[in-house]
Amino acid sequence: MLFNYKALETSGKNVSGSIEAVSLNVAIGSLQRRGLVISLIEPAEKESWMTQIQFGSGVSHKDIVMLSRQMATLFEAQVSALKIFVLLSTEVENPVLRKSLAQIADDIQAGSSISKALAKYPAVFSDFYVNMVRAGEETGKLNDTFNHLADYLDRNYEVISKTQNALIYPAFVITVFISVMALMFTVIIPKISLIIIESGQSIPVYSQIVFNISDFFLNYGLIILVALIVFGFFTVRYIRTSEGRSALARFKLRIPFIGNLYKKLYLSIIADNMNTMVLSGIPMLKAIEVTGAVVGNEVYKQILAESLLAVKGGSSLSQSLSQYEEIPGILVQMIKVGEESGELGSILGTMAHFYQREVINAVDTLVSLIEPVMIVLLGLGVGILLASVLIPIYDIANSAGV
């Protein structure tokens, strides 16, 4: 960034100019090392209000993966931490990440550790990420740590995105179908039903049912819409509470077939998180605590929180997890084998890969089943609707022809 400044030399002379630096603090430090007393310093180009607005963290999953790969390469090349963050802060395209890296570089220059500097930006670097970096600092293997992080984030992103994409398709189709049906019942069917009724022809039972549904939507549609909006508003408010999050988490795990998919997804996240952290030298208690914070489901978060207390009390992880029906017996037994053999990290890695394959297979099966089922259901719905309208019209045409 370019900064304009006004300053006072030791001789008392006023000077002004501009300086290129990755952040404001770095610019101030450079000017002070020149012996200048700064009276004013500001960015040469101020950000517009539109560029300052960010939705969420403003940093994508892909940005963090690429950043981790780059840092692993630079650490492996024996580049100092300060130079790495200064360099990356000028190279990355994402403005939020660039600003965060520049401020992290300032903190490192001031004597902070990398993990402490990263921890100041939880919206960008998760608790899991920070703890992994802290372990890398303690073991002196930061290049391996950032490679592990990039590998983990890649695997995690692939599984989660595949699951979300599989669920988006049916949700979109159902939404479009409901919208089209609502339009038919409130705009088209009423006009056709009026023509058929005025013709005096006998109306089939199924046609009468469709016409009655149309009348119901016409008379009470606005009330139903307002009720749905109110219901949605209070549902969202309820879900934001701890009780609501727990209820939603339990509901997701109980949905037929999809609940099993979610369960495998969360188990893969748990196993992969703990595998990555244990192999990086993070203590088991910390690995359990951090995994519970990032698992993304209140049911499993509660299970891990209770298991953490049990392990602190002297219980083994496998014994504490065996009490919960949400944890499959095979995972418990494999963890027990890992504890007894001293290969818990490798065992967790094996289970993580197993559940990731299970998730991908379940998603592929779900997608292959959804398409024909949706086609059949949509065909039936449209066919019944058309039959209820076209058959009476056909009868009217026949009568007119006679």
From TrEMBL:
Which family is it part of?
Answer: Belongs to the GSP F family.
Question: In what residue span(s) does the Type II secretion system protein GspF domain sit?
Answer: 68-190, 271-392
First-listed, main subcellular location of the protein, grouped into a coarse class: membrane
A cellular component annotation (GO) from this entry: plasma membrane
| Keywords on record | Cell inner membrane, Cell membrane, Membrane, Transmembrane, Transmembrane helix
Q: Tell me the compartments it is located in.
A: Cell inner membrane
Name any Gene Ontology BP term: protein secretion by the type II secretion system
Does the keyword field hold Protein biosynthesis?
no
* Protein name listed in UniProt: Type II secretion system protein GspF domain-containing protein
Please tell me whether the keyword Flavoprotein is annotated for this protein: no
The record lists the membrane-crossing segments as: 167-197, 217-236, 373-394
